[in-house]
Write a structure and sequence with these properties.
alpha+beta, Immunoglobulin-like, six-stranded antiparallel beta sheet, five-stranded mixed beta sheet, 15% helix
Length: 142
């Protein structure tokens, strides 16, 4: 009698385990972006930044990665990768008070990321140094 009861219970438990498995979330992969700096009238000033990525992403940095600065949808600067650090100059006008966000494309994973925080445009400043780069906190763009 015990064998007859335990088999149906095992079948029910097995069935429940099949349907209760959580699927891993998948993220869209992207083609390499072709970010070009937008034409802006009266560009007179800029600011510079040297960025590193958070440690969970910095292991994937590759030569074909892209980092760009945006005000809304206007690209205001594209970075150059030198010794695993992104060097970028962000262009603006003298009376600029925009919020700048950054987007990062990983050529290794083909994922697109966006900065969690924005930077207020401030003329003629430098964020980060080679010895102490600004760490860019990013989140996946879906």
């Amino acid at each position: 009698m015990k064998k007859n009861i335990s088999i149906p219970i095992l079948l029910v438990l097995f069935s429940l385990s099949l349907f209760s498995c959580k699927k891993d979330e998948t993220y869209p992969q992207h083609e390499k972006p072709n970010w070009e700096i937008s034409e802006i009238e009266n560009v007179q000033v800029n600011f510079s930044a040297i960025f590193d990525l958070e440690s969970n992403l910095s292991v994937y940095i590759a030569e074909n990665d892209e980092l760009a600065a945006f005000v809304g949808n206007d690209c205001r600067g594209t970075a150059t990768l030198i010794n695993d650090l992104f060097h970028i100059t962000v262009k603006g006008t003298a009376d600029e008070n925009s919020k700048v966000t950054f987007r990062y494309y990983s050529s290794t994973t083909k994922y697109m990321y966006e900065a969690i925080d924005y930077v207020d445009f401030e003329a003629n400043i430098t964020l980060g140094t080679i010895d102490n780069p600004e760490v860019l906190a990013l989140t996946l763009r879906k």
